Amino acid sequence: MHPKRTNRLLALLFILYLAWLLRITVFRPGFSLAELGQHGVLSATPFREYYYWLRAGVYGTACYLFFGNIGVFLPFGAYLAWRRPNLRLWQVTLAGFGLSLAIEAGQFLFGTGVSDLADLILNTLGVFLGAALLRWSLGFWRRHVVS
Predict the structure, then answer these.
(1) Which residues are within 8 A (CB) of 55 and not within 5 positions of it... i.e. 6 or more apart?
(2) Could you report the per-residue pLDDT of 62-91, keeping only the tens digit for each?
(3) 95, 45 in Cβ contact below 8 A?
C-alpha cells in the first residue's frame, strides 16, 4: 500500500478509535446535557475498589478493569509515538494523561461514570506502554529486519 494511503487509513482508524473511546467512557447511555454536573461521582483514593473486589473474590472484574484501563489507551500511545516521532516518551505520556484527565472530567460532569484516580493512572500507563512498545518494535525492525 502506498505510504500516503497508509497514513490516511491510520488517521481514519485513529479518529474512529477516539470516537469509540469517548462513546464507552463519556457519552454512554444515560448521557444528558440537561443533567450536567448533577450526578458526578469522584473516587480520589486510587485502587480502593480493586482492593474491595479482590477481598471479595471478584477477580474477573478487578482484572478486566485493571487491564482494560491499560489496554484501551495502548493505541493512543502507539499512534501518537508513530505520528510524532520527534516527541519524547514523556511528552506522549503527558498527552495521554491529558486525554485521560479530560475523559475523567467528562464522566464527572455528565455523571456517566465514576471519575477514578486509578483510571487516570492506568490509562496513562497504557499510553506509556503503547508508545514504548511501538518505539521498541520500530527499533527492533530497523536493527534486525531491514538491515
Answers:
(1) none
(2) 999 999 999 999 999 999 999 999 999 999
(3) no
